[in-house]
Structure formats: C-alpha cells, structure tokens
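Quick question: what would this complex look like in 3D?
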Amino acid sequence: MSISEKDVLRIAHLARVRVAPDELEHYREGLSGILSLVAQMHECDTEGVEPMAHPQDIQLRLREDEITEADQRTAMQESAPLVEAGLYLVPRVIE
Amino acid sequence: MFHEHSLIALRDLLRRREVSSTELTRHCLDRIDGHRDLNAFITIDEAGAMAAATAADEKLARGEHGPLTGVPIAHKDIFCTKGMLTTCGSKMLGNFVSPYDATVVERLADAGSVLVGKTNMDEFAMGSSNETSFFGTVKNPWDRNCVPGGSSGGSAAAVVAGLIPGATGTDTGGSIRQPAAFCGLTGLKPSYGRVSRYGMIAFASSLDQGGPITRSAEDAALMLSCMAGFDPRDSTSMNQPAPDLSSMLNIDLNGLRLGLPKEFFDDSVQGDVLEQVRESLAVFEGLGATLVDVSLPNSAAGIPCYYVIAPAEASSNLSRFDGVRFGHRSQEAGDLLDLYENSRAEGFGEEVKRRILIGTYALSAGYYDAYYLKAQKIRRVIAQDFATAFEHCDVIVGPTSPTTAFPIGEKTKDPVAMYLNDIFTNTVNLAGLPGLSIPSGFDAAGLPVGLQLIGRFMDEASLLGAAHQLQRETDWHQRVPPGF
C-alpha cells in the first residue's frame, strides 16, 4: 500500500514533525511498507465485534473532586528550556 | 565471585553480614566499568550508589532487613529518577532530570535496593534490538556481534554479564521478554495494571508494563513483589495488593495443563529454537504437567494490529515533547510552529518519527475507522482467542521469539523485518495478560533460546511457579556468557 509525498507532508504537519525534502522519499517508502503490513488486518474477520480500548475492558477509576495536588511549579520548571517569572517562554505567537 | 550469585543469594549474604552492600556495590561498579564496551548503561551514579550502599549497611547492622536491602540494581532509562538523568534513550530527553521518582523507583528503593544507574534502551522503547538508542547499540554478552534484543537491551545485557543481579525493564510488545530470551535470562511482563506506570515514560498506554529482568524465577518473583501493587497515581492500576510471589513458587505441576498453540510451532520458527523449547516441555511432562494442543487462530493478525495501536498511542503520548516545558528545544525557531516542528525533528530518531507518523495517519480523519477502530476490534478477537484457549489449559507455552539473537545491523534496513520479532509476544500485551520468558537451552551457535509462558490475567504465580520448578531441574538459567 503506497502513500504519496503529499500524504507524508500532511501527516508530518499534523504530527508537528518537520520532514526535510531530502528525507521525504525515505519516509514515504518506510510508511508505505508499514501500511502494506497493516493491510493484513483485513484478513481478520471482525464482523459484529466491538472495539477494545483497554486490555481488560476496565473503566477509568473515579475519585472525589477535591484538591489533592500542591503547587510544585518551581520544581517542575527546573527542567524547562526557558522560563521567566514562572512562565514558559516561546517565540512570539500573537503579532 | 559475587556476580555469580543470584539476587536472592546476594540478599541473604547481605542479611547474614557475610558481605557488605558497600563491597558488593563497589564490585558491581567495577564490573560495569570493566565492561563499558557492552554499552549497557547510559548513566552510572557512583557517588549516589556508594552513599546508598553505606546507608544500607547501617540498616543491616541494625537488623533492619527490607526485602532487597543492600542489593544493587539498575533501572531502564524509561523510569523517572529524581535528580538523575532520564533520557529514554533519546536526544529529546538527553538533558532531562526528572523532578520526581517513578513509583517503581520509589518502591524498589523502599525495599532497600541500591541504584547504580540507568540502562540503555531503544529510543522511547521503540525497537526489538537496542539499535535505535541515541546513545548507541548495546552488545549481547553472548556474542558482541549480536543484538541483546530490545527495547530493554541494556538491562538484559547488564544482568547476564553479571554487572548487576537484577534490573527493571518495560514491555509494550515484547521488550522485556525478547531481550530476556536473547540473553538467556528470566524476564516477566506482568498483567496489565499490576505494576504502576506513574513515572514510567509512556509509549503506548494501553500496552506498557514494567517488570523485572533477572537470572531466575525466584529473583523475578522477589523483584515483582516489591514493584507491584495498587497505585492511586496510575489511573490504570489494578486495585489489588502485590502478591507475595516468593512464597508461591513451590507449586505441584501434576495436573497443570500446558497449552501449545499450533501457530507457535510452525516452520516460521528457527529449527533449533523449537528443539530447545521441546526439551523444556519434556521436563515439564516429567514433572507431571500435561501438554494440550490449542489454537490461537488470529495470532498472525497481532502484528498489523499492534503496529496500528502502539504507534497511534505513541503519537498521542509523544506529542508532549514540544520543546516548551522540558527536553530538547531547537535553536532554529522563527515562530511557534518552527519550535514544535524543529524540536521534534531534531530530538527524535528515525524509528520514533516513523511510528509517530504512522500513528498520526491511523488516527487521522478518514482513516480512523479503517485503521485504529479495525485494530481495536482485532484486539478483542485476539483477547477472545486467549480466553477460549484458557478453557483447555492453564498456561500457554511456546518460543518467545522466532529466532535467537541476530547480528547487529541485520534487520535495521527494513522496519517491517524488525517488527516480525514480536510475533509471539505482542498479542500478550494486546490482551493484557502476563508473559514470562525463561532460558531453554542454546542454539547451534551457542546463543540462548527463550521459552515463553503466558498466563491468565493476574496469574503471574502459575508462570513463576512453573518456571521455578523447571529451573530446579535444569541449569540453563545459571549459565554465564564466555569471558564473564
């Protein structure tokens, strides 16, 4: 199953991963190979079968809506690339 | 020599004060240093380890015996360790120091173990050979031209080389069991929800499980008992306490039904692998077990199903690596989109990018039903196949991997060739069941063969018990690679 370079660029944009022009064919080929493998899924009959998201069909646990976490911003931001006044700095977003 | 002892034997020597933790830890650190060519470790914390060993000796002197007091171990570099690098084998986290410990790290520390460092792994746990790590390939101590298996290759190489008596791994499609098989070790993937995933960097959240890689079922039982148990911080943690598996190993195999799926015993498996597996089956029969033919008719569908679900979940989990809050940030960033796209392109290796792209595709509009939903239906079919098989047997057995350890570089050109390593292991993750790989002889080239045991949900006890009984009758698990 083959996909196009255009498809690869579209997916790369959705995934926010830059694929350089000189890498495009390599990834296109690799992804096409995986999709050919994945196409084998159609050999398995799943008529009337419900999708299974959790290996034991378990529902997520609920708890009381109470505050249980403390403010740990300083500790969490120690591994940040660029912070100032407790805020994460990024290139300008709004002109 | 200390590195010839099992983890339990070392624990007991420490308790009897016949060796100190300081001495033992020093010995491990020296051996790690003497075998750096294996590339099994990413980070070694000598100062921290010796300080922890000293503290452990003080406890032992006071008669305070935790389950693992003074025993040196290592964590796969996917478990967050406070104050020590956690890289996940990736440039993306090459500088990441976690502000907290994973639950697994906390629990093994509370049990008294001494952490010597973090082991090498395939990048973000994506791989079956430990060749995708940003920090280089790990060598198999049985043959340095061969892979140790992956993604927990560093942990496996370190344990079989006698650098440490036990290490943690994680398993999403086989990443504990297959390196255990390739290195002649005992590796356990617990039932889904048995071991907390809090602080265990996520690859595929519905498949990932942490577990022990050790030399024996006895050692694995001890480590798992320390690691397992309900954790409120993991929303998928099973509300069950950790079982005392060490006390459950002496099972009577009379009447135990071992199911042999015909799909696991065909000619897609290396010939001498099947021969060695049959040797173990003969031992089990000698101990009273009954062999039963079963079928897992959709097991081949596990590969395409897994290679949709796992990358899809990975594409979601790895979206957090955006250069903003932690990890690698690109210096080439004109605007925010550049920041995301370049940080991620620079930080992730090829296999990781490939899986993120496939996962994104499978989840995208127009393809979600044909890929992701279809895969989730196959998942249920596979789980049902196991349930049906378990009506006729108690433990399912077969080879862990279709081959023994392959040469470095042999499968890196074609991603799909690499994916086929998982054929017997990833259906177990899809169904959330426990799986154990134990040594079962060697192939004609002297490379270890792994036997896999698969159990009912939450039945690690049958797996470890059966394995322990086999290990009382055989000595494959005690063999050491030449030169180590």
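Answer marked as accepted. The domain at 2-253 of chain B is CATH 3.90.1300.10 (Amidase signature (AS) enzymes).
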